[in-house]
């Protein structure tokens, strides 16, 4: 047969086989879940007034232009980076509000403005953030597949009063599927007053890969900086002393470094292991849709804003370049990630999974988030220049605007909406309130389902989706408002954390709990350090920073 006649047949067959393989690789359940949101959004659009739809469409067009321009400027034409940046967006949104009020599309009231903003944000979150996370799940995982040779790795475990926990953390690292000659583990006892040092030292005596150093209590940031003095690995991994890593987590968390030299830090996926209460299950659902999904979206641009302290990785030279950890905030992981991003490096997310203990009571959750949210506001204020400096690319144009809306607009808007709902109920508009609740709950439900599908989580968590609309959400909104006021009015804020479950069960509820500082105390005061495997009898049990949470 004529080869010229055969060639088109072969090419057509190869293309068909390629198309079949692509179709087989599609995760169709994720596709179905994502597209199912068209139903509630269509119902919402169907009941909206035409003027409101015009206002939403105009703002959506404005944001689309901004995002498209941002992509062009960052990727193609950095010489125009100062044109239509975050300042320009703020001016454009202000002009937009004036225009829609003048056109009669929006009533000139705070409530109407908050309502419009809430609806727009749910559109943006689903069709931008969730879409990118969905796309990331479809095509992005394979680009960071682990493969040898694996780099020299040093794992730092800062620990303050982690008796009963640090041994499990070290054991999980020793059991990890990673070349033994490329892994060293350094546990840093940050002046513990319990048996943390002895517990960790037992592993040092049994394994050459483990070493233990001790210092006077000075805070988690100082424990990490001290541990760096004993680290020899090219990649530095930090693991909290109450966390357990998956056997393949270390291989996954170093994979992005080999794939892209511009990556300076890598985040992990955080999973809660103690899911035996309403509080911990709500937290896991929050992690699934509010943390892990959000990180996957930002990973597409290389601007993951927080490398979690429970499992994160950094290039050694990058940490040295940004002078490692600072005492300026209560969230050293957020702060150092911002420093890495500001230095021009990409921060990515991996498939490495870590299991951590979550606060089991509302009081303990309050204490944990008190530190987190205060630290978040401290970190944003510390790095405020990034908000107005267009040279920071996607960090300035995408990540921080979303983060500012999340931190400064949503908590206050939540209570405006609650007040309006209370008024509607009092006025007898119960069906209207129910319809709004059903819409937002359905969207959160679908986002949660998509997150559970992507992360391989427990589908029973969907039962708690309504609490992320009413109840659990307001708890965090109120705490965010309190923490913002705390940061603005009280310059010296201490470290707070939740009590450890097993330490409470064992009859030692005071272990690991750090008292509030007295007036005038500062965050993480510098203290004297000790040499390797040397205990420190003169530690301060009332120091307010620690190394394990």
TrEMBL record:
<feature type="transmembrane region" description="Helical">
    <location>
        <begin position="404"/>
        <end position="425"/>
    </location>
</feature>
<keyword id="KW-1133">Transmembrane helix</keyword>
<keyword id="KW-0328">Glycosyltransferase</keyword>
<keyword id="KW-0812">Transmembrane</keyword>
<feature type="transmembrane region" description="Helical">
    <location>
        <begin position="431"/>
        <end position="452"/>
    </location>
</feature>
<dbReference type="InterPro" id="IPR029044">
    <property type="entry name" value="Nucleotide-diphossugar_trans"/>
</dbReference>
<keyword id="KW-0472">Membrane</keyword>
<feature type="transmembrane region" description="Helical">
    <location>
        <begin position="111"/>
        <end position="135"/>
    </location>
</feature>
<dbReference type="GO" id="GO:0016757">
    <property type="term" value="F:glycosyltransferase activity"/>
</dbReference>
<feature type="compositionally biased region" description="Low complexity">
    <location>
        <begin position="515"/>
        <end position="526"/>
    </location>
</feature>
<feature type="transmembrane region" description="Helical">
    <location>
        <begin position="28"/>
        <end position="45"/>
    </location>
</feature>
<feature type="transmembrane region" description="Helical">
    <location>
        <begin position="84"/>
        <end position="105"/>
    </location>
</feature>
<protein>
    <submittedName>
        <fullName>Family 2 glycosyl transferase</fullName>
    </submittedName>
</protein>
<keyword id="KW-0808">Transferase</keyword>
<feature type="region of interest" description="Disordered">
    <location>
        <begin position="514"/>
        <end position="549"/>
    </location>
</feature>
<dbReference type="Pfam" id="PF13641">
    <property type="entry name" value="Glyco_tranf_2_3"/>
</dbReference>
<feature type="transmembrane region" description="Helical">
    <location>
        <begin position="51"/>
        <end position="72"/>
    </location>
</feature>
């Amino acid at each position: 047969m004529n080869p010229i006649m055969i060639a088109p047949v072969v090419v057509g067959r190869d293309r068909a086989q390629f198309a079949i393989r692509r179709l087989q690789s599609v995760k169709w359940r994720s596709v179905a879940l994502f597209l199912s949101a068209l139903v509630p959004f269509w119902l919402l659009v169907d009941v909206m007034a035409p003027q409101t739809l015009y206002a939403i469409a105009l703002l959506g067009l404005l944001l689309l232009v901004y995002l498209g321009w941002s992509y062009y400027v960052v990727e193609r034409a950095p010489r125009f980076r100062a044109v239509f940046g975050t300042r320009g967006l703020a001016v454009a949104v202000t002009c937009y509000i004036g225009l829609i009020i003048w056109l009669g599309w929006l009533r000139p009231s705070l409530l109407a403005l908050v309502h419009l903003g809430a609806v727009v944000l749910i559109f943006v979150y689903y069709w931008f953030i969730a879409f990118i996370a969905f796309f990331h799940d479809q095509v992005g995982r394979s680009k960071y597949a682990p493969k040898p040779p694996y780099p020299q790795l040093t794992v730092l475990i800062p620990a303050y009063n982690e008796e009963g926990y640090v041994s499990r953390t070290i054991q999980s690292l020793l059991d990890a599927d990673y070349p033994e000659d490329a892994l060293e583990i350094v546990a840093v006892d940050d002046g513990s007053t319990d048996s943390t040092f002895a517990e960790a030292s037992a592993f040092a005596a049994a394994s050459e890969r483990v070493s233990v150093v001790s210092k006077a209590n000075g805070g988690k940031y100082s424990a990490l900086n001290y541990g760096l003095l004993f680290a020899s690995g090219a990649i530095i991994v930090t693991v909290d002393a109450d966390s357990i890593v998956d056997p393949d987590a270390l291989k996954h968390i170093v994979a992005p470094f080999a794939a892209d030299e511009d990556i300076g830090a890598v985040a992990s996926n955080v999973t809660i292991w103690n899911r035996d209460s309403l509080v911990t299950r709500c937290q896991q659902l929050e992690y699934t849709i509010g943390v892990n999904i959000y990180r996957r979206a930002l990973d597409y641009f290389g601007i993951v804003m927080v490398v979690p302290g429970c499992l994160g990785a950094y290039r050694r030279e990058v940490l040295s370049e940004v002078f490692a950890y600072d005492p300026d905030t209560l969230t050293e992981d957020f702060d150092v990630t911002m420093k890495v991003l500001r230095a021009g490096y990409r921060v990515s997310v991996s498939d490495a999974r870590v299991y951590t203990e979550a606060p089991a009571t509302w009081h303990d959750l309050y204490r944990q988030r008190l530190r987190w949210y205060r630290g978040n506001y401290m970190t944003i204020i510390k790095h405020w220049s990034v908000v107005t400096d267009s040279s920071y690319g996607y960090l300035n144009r995408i990540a921080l605007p979303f983060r500012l809306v999340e931190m400064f607009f949503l908590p206050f808007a939540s209570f405006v909406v609650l007040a309006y709902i209370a008024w509607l109920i009092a006025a007898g508009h119960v069906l209207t309130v129910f319809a709004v609740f059903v819409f937002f709950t359905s969207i959160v439900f679908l986002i949660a389902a998509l997150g559970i599908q992507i992360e391989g989580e427990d589908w029973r968590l969907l039962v708690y989706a309504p609490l992320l609309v009413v109840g659990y959400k307001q708890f965090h909104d109120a705490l965010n408002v309190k923490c913002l006021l705390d940061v603005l009015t009280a310059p010296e804020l201490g470290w707070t954390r939740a009590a450890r479950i097993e330490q409470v069960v064992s009859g030692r509820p005071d272990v690991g709990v750090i008292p509030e500082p007295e007036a005038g105390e500062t965050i993480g005061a510098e203290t004297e350090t000790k040499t390797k495997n040397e205990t420190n009898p003169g530690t301060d049990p009332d120091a307010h920073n620690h190394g394990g949470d």
